[in-house]
Amino acid sequence: MKHLISLGLVAMMAAAPSFAAGDAEAGKAKAAICAACHGANGIAAIPGYPNLAGQNPQYIVSALKAYKNGERTSAQAAIMKPQATMLSDADMENLAAYFAQMK
What Gene3D superfamilies does the database record attribute to this sequence (predicted)? Predict the structure, then answer.
């Protein structure tokens, strides 16, 4: 029985990172500039740009931090680095929560 409870706790802890830690409403307020390339509904308006609607929130945060830190050097990095540089960690979490909850 103890092993079953322990297994359940481990499963819950493993699932916890899949929930967005940010505030989706605050993210919505910050997302206006994102709409120019990623679409007002999170579906990219420009071919080759990623859709953000329904995206994994950890991926969004990780990508934004990588752009901000200069770890991403793709063609989009020239556009994304200045955008990401203006964001705090909380802003990134909020944006991730907002886009993750979109269908």
Answer: Cytochrome c-like domain (1.10.760.10)
Alpha-helix runs per DSSP H in the chain:
2-15, 24-30, 35-38, 57-68, 77-85, 89-100
Residue 7 counted as domain residue? no
* pLDDT score for 21: 85
DSSP assignment letter at 18: G
Indicate whether 4 belongs to any domain. Answer: no
Q: What is the mean pLDDT of residues 6-25?
A: 58
What is the number of domains present in the chain? 1
CA distance 91 to 8: 32
Residue 1 confidence class, pLDDT cut points 50, 70, 90 = low
39 located within any domain:
yes
Residues 95 and 91: their CA atoms lie apart, in Å, by: 6
pTM of the predicted structure, to 2 decimals? 0.79
Cβ-contact 33, 79 below 8 angstroms: no
